[in-house]
Automatic annotation (TrEMBL):
Residues 23-38 have a biased composition (Acidic residues). Residues 1-38 are annotated as: Disordered. Homodimer. It comes from Pasteurella bettyae CCUG 2042. The keyword Chaperone applies. Belongs to the GrpE family. It comes from the Bacteria. The gene is grpE. SUPFAM superfamilies: Coiled-coil domain of nucleotide exchange factor GrpE, Head domain of nucleotide exchange factor GrpE. GO terms for cellular component: cytosol. This is Protein GrpE. Participates actively in the response to hyperosmotic and heat shock by preventing the aggregation of stress-denatured proteins, in association with DnaK and GrpE. It is the nucleotide exchange factor for DnaK and may function as a thermosensor. Unfolded proteins bind initially to DnaJ; upon interaction with the DnaJ-bound protein, DnaK hydrolyzes its bound ATP, resulting in the formation of a stable complex. GrpE releases ADP from DnaK; ATP binding to DnaK triggers the release of the substrate protein, thus completing the reaction cycle. Keywords: Chaperone, Cytoplasm, Stress response.
Length: 197
């Protein structure tokens, strides 16, 4: 073969190779673009799942905090209920005892001849009984309320009437008809009083 034919053949082979390389490069580019799109979709999906996971974790954390707060509130309410039950368990009993205290006070206020020895001994016995009863209920948190000269308080006093009275300012208690009582700060019976107008 002649040299020219050999050169011609080399040029054709080079052109074929160049054409083949271009085609291979195009195919690789196409193949590379396809995985690139799939990779971008996968990355987007992973980011979306990570966001959902973070949101779910945040909701779960919020739910956990709310549950703990609710448990703390329930525990606190239960403790308060138990405390109130201890404080005010004697309320009904205390109300019933108040009638006995009232009767002993009426007995001491009755007009009797205190000079007679037999009556004086009885009077002293009633007085000592009343003092002991008041001391006993006082140890359990029962205390009297409503004294002459105090300012009228509608939460602790029940006004029977209002009358002008000398020596008293407006809304001062002028007379106590029946003592009121508190049990650990809670009114179990309001005092019945007369108030200066």
């Amino acid at each position: 073969m002649s040299e020219q034919a050999q050169n011609q053949e080399k040029v054709e082979i080079t052109e074929d190779l160049t054409t083949q390389e271009i085609q291979d490069t195009e195919e690789q580019t196409t193949v590379e673009e396809e995985p690139s799109d799939a990779l971008e979709e996968a990355i987007a999906r992973v980011q979306e799942l990570e966001e959902q996971l973070a949101e779910t974790a945040k909701k779960e954390q919020d739910l956990l905090l709310r549950s703990r707060a609710e448990m703390d509130n329930m525990r606190r309410r239960a403790e308060q209920d138990v405390e109130k039950a201890h404080k005010f368990a004697l309320e009904k009993f205390s109300k019933d005892i108040l009638n006995t205290i009232d009767n002993l006070e009426r007995a001491l206020a009755s007009p009797v001849n205190k000079e007679d020895e037999s009556i004086k001994a009885l009077f002293d016995g009633v007085e000592l009984t009343l003092k002991e009863l008041l001391a006993t209920v006082g140890r359990f948190g029962v205390e009297p309320v409503g004294n002459v000269g105090e300012a009228f308080n509608p939460e602790m006093h029940q006004a029977i009437s209002m009358q002008p009275a000398e020596g008293f300012e407006s809304n001062q208690i002028t007379s106590v008809l029946q003592k009121g009582y508190l049990l650990n700060g809670r009114v179990i019976r309001p005092a019945m009083v007369m108030v200066a107008s």
